[in-house]
Each structure stands twice: as structure tokens, then as C-alpha cells.
Amino acid sequence: MEALEKIIKRTHILFLNKKEVTLLTGRDYNDGAEKLVETGVPLVVVTMGKDGSKVYTEAGQIHQPANEQNVIDTTGAGDSFAAGFITGFYNKKNLKECLRQGNKSASTCVTKFGAFKGSEYKYK
To answer: What amino acid positions are annotated as catalytic residues?
Structure first.
């Protein structure tokens, strides 16, 4: 983390999964995400597979449960989640709704082998 600290401090939204938070910070994902916020990242978004996702801010954390799906393949799920979240963020949705959109996008992605075509999911 020390080697990346200058870059991390310039990051507005950092997307990581639980394992990546632990690898980056040397802490469990919850403590690690809070440490990243303390370092200066305004929004740390952590994907947690079947446990959903969380966003961490200076004000606290928000959890959104996962959409239940028959998971076939997780390829592209993280990128799909980020696309859904960013779409909500760009459209000035609240953070809970951004998580919901990210989860919805990722849950659609995992029902097939490989990443899905963007046209299959319509953001609302």
C-alpha cells in the first residue's frame, strides 16, 4: 500500500473485492476499507460475492445485499458491478441505489459463461 499511497490518495472511487482489500492493506476487508477512507479515498466500494457489496465513506458504511442468482461464471462480474455503480453515480443516485444498480448488473453477468453484452441489461 505504501508504494501506491500517492495514487490511492488521488482516487475518488476505489473498487475492490474483499480479497483485494486484504492484499492491499494487510487487514481484513472491513478494517482495510476503513483504512483506505482514512488515507483519503472518498468512496471505497467493496464487492463481497454472495454477501453483496458495501460502500465506505467518512460518514460510515452502507451495505446492499446481493441479488440471488444461479451463478454459472463470475468472469466480468466485478467490472459489470463497477459499470452499474458508476452509471448510478453519474446519474446522481444515492449510494444505496448505486450499490443496488451495481449488484443488479453483476447478478445478470454471473448467469452466463463469460462477460455479457452490455445491451442485455438496461439501467433504470
So the answer is: 79
Other Cβ atoms less than 10 A from the Cβ of 39: the count is: 16
The ranges assigned to domains in the chain are 2-109
Of the candidates 7, 22, 84, the one whose C-alpha atom is nearest the C-alpha of residue 53 is: 84
Provide the 10 A C-beta neighbour count for residue 79.
14
- Give the mean model confidence (pLDDT) for residues 8-26: 96
Provide CB contacts within 8 A for 41, sequence distance 6+: 8, 9, 11, 12, 13, 14
Per-residue pLDDT tens digits for 50-88: 999 999 999 999 999 998 888 888 888 999 999 999 999
pTM of the model: 0.88
Q: Is it true that domain 2-109 has CATH number 3.40.1190.20?
A: yes
Contact in structure between 107 and 67 (CB atoms under 8 Å)? yes
Other C-beta atoms lying within 10 Å of the C-beta of residue 72: 12
Residues in the chain: 124
